[in-house]
Amino acid sequence: MAYDEACGERPRLLVVANRLPVSAKRTGENSWSLEMSPGGLVSGLLGVAAQFDTKWVGWPGVDVYDEVEKRALSKALAEMKCIPVFLNEVFDQYYNGYCNGILWPILHHMGLPQEDDNDTNKTFQTQYDAYKRANRMFLDVIIDNYEEGDIVWCHDYHLMFLPQYLKEYNNKIKVGWFLHSPFPSSEVYKTLPSRSELLRSVLTSDLLGFHTYDFARHFVSTCTRILGVEGTQEGVVDHGRVTRVAVFPLGIDPDRFIRTCKLPEVRQQMNELKERFAGKKVILGVDRLDMIKGIPQKFLGFEKFLEENPNWRDKVVLVQIAVPTRNGVPEYRKLKNQAHGLVGRINGRFGSVTSLPIHHLDCSVDFNYLCALYAIADVMLVTSLRDGMNLVSYEFIACQEAKKGVLVLSEFAGAGQSLGAGALLVNPWDVTEVSSAIKEALNMSVEERETRHRVNFQYVKTYSAKKWGDDFMRELNETVTESEMQIGKTPHQLPQQDVIQRYSKSNNRLIILGFCGTLTEPMNKETKETDLKLNPELKGTLKALCNDPKTTVVVLSRSGRDILDKNFGEYKIWLAAENGMFLRHTTGEWVTNVPENMNLDWVDGAKNVFKYFTDRTPRSFLEASETSLVWNYEYADAEFGRAQARDMLQYLWSGPISNASVDVVRGNNSVEVHAMGLTKDEDIYTFFESETLPSKLPLETRSKSSANNHSLKQKRKVLLNVFDLKEDNYFSASIGQARTDARYVIDSSHDVVDFLHMLTVGVAMTRTTGSFSDSDANANLQHSNGGKTKEPNCVVC
Ligand SMILES: O=P(O)(O)OC[C@H]1O[C@H](O[C@H]2O[C@H](CO)[C@@H](O)[C@H](O)[C@H]2O)[C@H](O)[C@@H](O)[C@@H]1O
Ligand SMILES: O=c1ccn([C@@H]2O[C@H](COP(=O)(O)OP(=O)(O)O)[C@@H](O)[C@H]2O)c(=O)[nH]1
């Protein structure tokens, strides 16, 4: 269902992109002609606009300084729902400079150009300043046109500062950002001066979209490496704030192409073209004349084909439409000369008086003619060296219902991931491979062409631009709703005073405590698992709590039996080692809680991988037990630690744990693998909350561990009865973590010491005076809050 159908009315949308869908050309004083703008971004977005109440904000394609003229052009554009941003004097340094001279090559793995020492008016810094200024100019226009509730969808690398500016202006605006180009590997991105500021700004958006998983993965890993933030399944997490990162492959409006191919005038153009190329197969190329499109590589591949297949020389023609683009950038001007040189060489080598193998046009063509060309071509040749999507490939397929020609497609275009099944994929750098693919395409049987075409045609029909827009908007709305709910769920400080009062009055109490970070003495960067020690300040308090016959104290830890024995041997306490795999009664004997048939074959292999990374990551450490492995890099360099964790997970998934029944938990600063179904740290907080246990198991593992769930439910039932743990009758608190399933938070392990101490004081006072008053509590506690009325029986920290 489309988004608008679900909501009843069309949502208002401001689409903000560098280019408006129409560009103005001055035809006289105060008069303009408006032409369709080139490029896939515009084509793609045109397919989206209908289902929203859309207005476009963007550069109109010309400089206009005179206010009267500005008003006239704005009026003409308003009829097309377009709002101009007049960039004028900023344009050159912003668009030719920072956007297309610096960002574009970086995004496409082409490296930063050398800064020109002689031109002090045009440096990285001046271009960067212009870029920021231009982004502010977009903001100003948006502010003038924004109405409450509008969704603002920013597009592409031209507008990386806009999300931050928008959120600074009004944090409530729903902001999405979509990148139409690829996102590079962090190794390439990190060469960019000002790399962090751009990432930070983009991360203020609610939703970030990319064409492919590769680009999204590069983005997330770049953020983790450069900013030291956390990368998760959902996206990027920074100080508890999640920026959702997702994949939305753009498509086209296929029906527009199918309809156009049926128009009489287009049929007429097709006939003319067929006549013009009678007796020859037509290979078609349609690209902006951009370095990323691999036009020289295409010519070299074609030259090789002609060289090696003399019988084809007068039977094939390559028609290349090279749409002029970004002439203000020196690299593009050089490319034009290079392309012309190659065309001259190849035509000179293989042409004759009456026929030329390459027809190269330095111009754009109108839409109808483009459709006619797509429709009559036998082969479409796309050799991009790197390309966000490449919609030309889609358009060709949409126009080939009758002919069922072959798409030869670069594996480095985003489209390679969607149309790879029906296309012949090539590495454009490999001229021999391109040449062979041309040959294969030209000789392909009708049956094979039909099968390949069917696959791709189905894809192009289904994954349209409309679907792309719907999916992005739906995700944006869901993301915003979820994050609003998350804010509502942020836990409050533990109401210590209230807990103490009710704890004192209760006759049957259960305290469940963690160990590391809860009861341990303060740790430093060098602390190892084996060195963990119970905080000496707690000894007396813990003894008092354990010796109280009305109180049962449990320490539930990830640590192994040895460590717990060493620290708690002298206490009358329950110990649950390895997250409950081993239990020790207050009398001191350990019992195993491991299911008999549990397969632990994976442990040794995984341990080697953990050890490898521990050895190579200074200040990280490994906690290994019989059933679980935890690699902790809390004290390692944050950026390096995260990068290592990611690599480690990749090794683990592809090797030792690929077929094992394990849970993998990616913590803030740790990677944990444990036998499936064991309680994870955070599960204890939800254990008493609801009937569905454990709450956090990933969907795909739930069914496998249903037997385990059943036994957990049983245990829960027993505990609920014994301790009378009604819903409101217990208090769970996590230490210093904002994102938690616990109901409350306690700021630090110091506060845990104070709080546990106060529990014993409360009991003593109640015993001597019969009550524990607010003033008693206030005299002793720094952190206190108002709270509930029922008697608490359970405290989980
Ligand atoms: O506006 P220009 O500087 O003339 O450039 C035209 C567009 O080029 C880029 O297009 C990208 O978007 C397409 C649609 O998502 C995608 O298929 C293609 O692979 C990309 O190169 C650029 O990203 C756009 O902003 C430009 O408008
Ligand atoms: O003379 C032309 C030839 C092509 N196109 C359009 O330009 C877009 C190119 O998009 P693509 O995604 O392939 O690459 P981009 O140019 O955006 O990098 C396609 O929609 C083409 O229909 C155009 O406007 N004029």
UniProtKB/TrEMBL annotation:
Keywords linked to the UniProt accession: Glycosyltransferase, Transferase
A single cellular component GO annotation: cytosol
Top-level division of the source organism's lineage: Eukaryota
Cross-referenced CDD domains: GT20_TPS
UniProt cross-references to InterPro entries, sorted A to Z: Glyco_trans_20, HAD-like_sf, Trehalose_OtsA, Trehalose_PPase
Catalytic activity, EC: 2.4.1.15
An annotated GO BP: trehalose biosynthetic process
Pfam families linked: Glyco_transf_20, Trehalose_PPase
Signal peptide extent: none
Any one GO MF annotation of this record: trehalose-phosphatase activity
EC main group: transferase
Similarity-based family: In the C-terminal section; belongs to the trehalose phosphatase family.
NCBIfam families per UniProt: PRK14501.1, trehalose_OtsA
Protein name, entry field: alpha,alpha-trehalose-phosphate synthase (UDP-forming)
